[in-house]
Amino acid sequence: MKNKHMQQAIDISLQKMEENCGGPFGAVIIKDGEIIARGWNQVTSTNDPTAHAEMVAIRTACKHLHSFQLEGCEIYTSCYPCPMCLGAIYWARPDKVYYANTAKDAAHIGFDDAFIYEEIKRPPAQRKIPFQQIMREEAFRVFKAWQEKEDKLEY
Amino acid sequence: MKNKHMQQAIDISLQKMEENCGGPFGAVIIKDGEIIARGWNQVTSTNDPTAHAEMVAIRTACKHLHSFQLEGCEIYTSCYPCPMCLGAIYWARPDKVYYANTAKDAAHIGFDDAFIYEEIKRPPAQRKIPFQQIMREEAFRVFKAWQEKEDKLEY
């Protein structure tokens, strides 16, 4: 199945890789049939480990829409989202995601996507990066304050 | 166990929540005993669904260090990272993460962290946000071009 929006995401992935912006990843976000955001990997060129194609596209689309939600939008990404980008997609709540390459394909060319998916399944104490819980009682007081806050904007 | 860095993360979470920046979440990043970055949730105030406390802190720390890696750094976050932030932590590769509230605590006050962890475990086709694969062959050609690229900067 050929699709012009996915072709655009793939074209961006190649072009920006050739321009040494970062890894070979591109994404576009579509609303009402029109592109409202383009994204490409910029990790190494901007020293930002969060600057994946989908993240950049989501941030741009939300800025364009003046909203932190992407209802009515579709994301086309040249590769299946890594856990970070998958999480961002869930927070942004688009209607649908189309992807081309898989997490295994990304692993095959040297990216950690599949490894991070494995790590997420492990208990915090058994992970490669150690996680330790401290001071939950003090922090939970702030959560209670959020619950009681009357003028909060939920998301 | 009391810890001054975690106390700072918790203090930020309360202060920025009260200033209506976003949800009740704060983080600090420490290198050689010093704070090199502070982060707090800014989702609703900046219309950016990716602006979680850890994300903001990681981006700030990397800018400070002129690096896309956080070797030698520790992250203190007032709540266990959501899947997006956990992914970002794996890409940034700090030495250790300390957290206070749990993902269940976050769910208890109305945040989707635990739900997104559940969704990640599901096959793409069974998720609440539908994922569909198209045009893998075309996209994989770009991955091959990355493999063959001689001047690539890996990350």
Molecular structure report:
The structure is a homodimer of 155-residue chains. The first copy, chain A, has 155 residues and is of the alpha+beta class. Chain A is 45% helix and 19% strand. Chain A contains seven helices and five strands, in the order αββααβαβααβα. Chain A has helices at 4-18, 43-46, 53-65, 83-92, 103-108, 113-121, 136-148; strands spanning 26-31, 34-40, 73-79, 96-101, 131-133. Chain A has a four-stranded mixed β-sheet with strand order 2-1-3-4. In chain A, β3 (73-79), α4 and β4 form a beta-alpha-beta unit. In chain A, α3 packs parallel to α4. The first copy, chain A, is globular, with a radius of gyration of 18 Å. The first copy, chain A, starts with a helix and ends in a 7-residue tail after the last helix. β4 of chain A pairs parallel with β5 of chain B, so a sheet runs across the interface.
